[in-house]
Every structure is written in C-alpha cells, then in structure tokens.
Amino acid sequence: MPGNLTDFLLGGSGRVSLLPCGFGWNSTSNVGMTGPSLQTLSGACVANTWKTVLSVSGSASRLNALMLSIQDATARTVKLRITIDGVVVFDEPKAVSNTLKLIVIGQVVGGTTNSLIFQPVDAASTLLVEYQSNLTETDKVSFAYNYEVR
C-alpha cells in the first residue's frame, strides 16, 4: 500500500539500478569487522576471474552492509561487483598496497570506537556479490556482510 511509513522512510519500493557510492572507507584502522555481520575469507582466487562472495536468489532480500579487508601488504587491484535483480549496480576497481578496510555498503561513524551503520539495499529476487583480484592467491581478502532474506 503506497504511503505507508516504510515507503516514506526508505524511499518507496523502486528497483535499485545504480549504487554510485564507490569505496567509502579506506583505512588501516580496525573497522570492527566483527559487528552484526557474517564473515568469510576469499578462498582460492584465480587472477582476473570473478568469485562469488554472496548469492541470494528466489526471494526478496536486503543487503545492509558490505565490507572487505585486505589481509596483507601485497600490491594488488581488487574489484567488487554487485548485481541486483540482474542489473549490475556496482562495479569498481581499487588499487591497494597495504592492509585496508573498504566499505561498499554502510557507513562508519568514528569516535572512540568505529561503528558500522546499515545502508539497506533491497533486491526483489536476486542478489549477487562477486570479487576479483589481479593476482592468483588464497585467503588474502576477508568479507563482512549483513543481509536479510524476506
């Protein structure tokens, strides 16, 4: 029903077609990767080949937060791609040469502790997050994410 509080606060139920946010955090400080999130390592990655980080299909879902953390100081270019309902909404490379924390979805509020604030991104039927590195390597990136299935 249009006009309800959820539509008012979340901007309605239109489809996501672009996340023009870029990598919003670039720091060597600890960003509390243990907050209300699931964590996983990248596993074995083949250079310049997409690897699935998160895949939800068959029902509505919401991605609340997505961060990645580089585990060593090896120079590499990482790339993240988010596809929502068949549309690529985020596809961005980032050259890194040290242990960084990169936030794609969400926001960090700094202070005595760094706190992650959710930035809900809704999908009607499919949500896919993929990762790519220009190096062949194993477990050199960790991911933290929070999502809901509806």
Please give a structural write-up.
The chain has 150 residues and is mainly beta. The strands form 4 sheets. Strands 1, 4, 7, 10 and 13 form a 5-stranded antiparallel beta sheet that branches. Strands 3-11-5-6 form a 4-stranded antiparallel beta sheet, with no helix packed on it. Strands 2-12 form a two-stranded antiparallel sheet. The longest helix has 6 residues.
How large is the radius of gyration? 16 Å
Question: H/E series, N to C?
Answer: HEEEEEEEEEEEEE
- Mean pLDDT over the full residue set: 80
Overall body shape: globular
Flag low-confidence runs.
1-11
- Report the sheet with the most strands, covering strand number, pairing sense and barrel closure: 5 strands, antiparallel
Instruction: Calculate the terminal CA-CA distance, rounded to whole Å.
Output: 17 Å
Number of helices: 1
Q: Report the portion of residues in β strands.
A: over 45%
Roughly what percent helix? under 10%
* Count of strand segments: 13
Main structural class = mainly beta
